[in-house]
Amino acid sequence: MFFFFAGGVEQQVRQVLKYGAGRCIACRSPADLVEYEKVLKLFFVPVWRWRGKEPVMHCNNCNLFFPRSYSLPPPPPLTADSVSAVLRCRSCDQAVEPDFRFCPFCGSAL
User: In this structure, which long-range contacts are made by residues 69-76, counting pairs with CB atoms below 8 Å and at least 24 apart in sequence?
Assistant: First the structure.
């Protein structure tokens, strides 16, 4: 007898509590403070949903969920002087000249 199971549990954002509350620990992109839910799927169809225990951070760039305690501080607000003076790469956080389209240190798009 052969049994094939296609499904699993995944996390999904239920509600955004605060946009840009921190930065992702993996890719350093802005991360939101969210309430989440876990979803059991069988053959890619949602069957059961239940809420997460406490709010977590969620990165829209790499889709990572991580605890609030591990969040990096939010990026400082941009001013006219800081934009023209220094531009930082999102991936490696190196200072890059404003006219560059790609980071010369890691090669990621700016």
Answer: 70/25, 71/21, 71/22, 71/23, 71/25, 71/31, 72/22, 72/23, 72/24, 72/25, 72/28, 73/22, 73/23, 74/20, 74/21, 74/22, 74/23, 74/30, 75/20, 75/23, 75/30
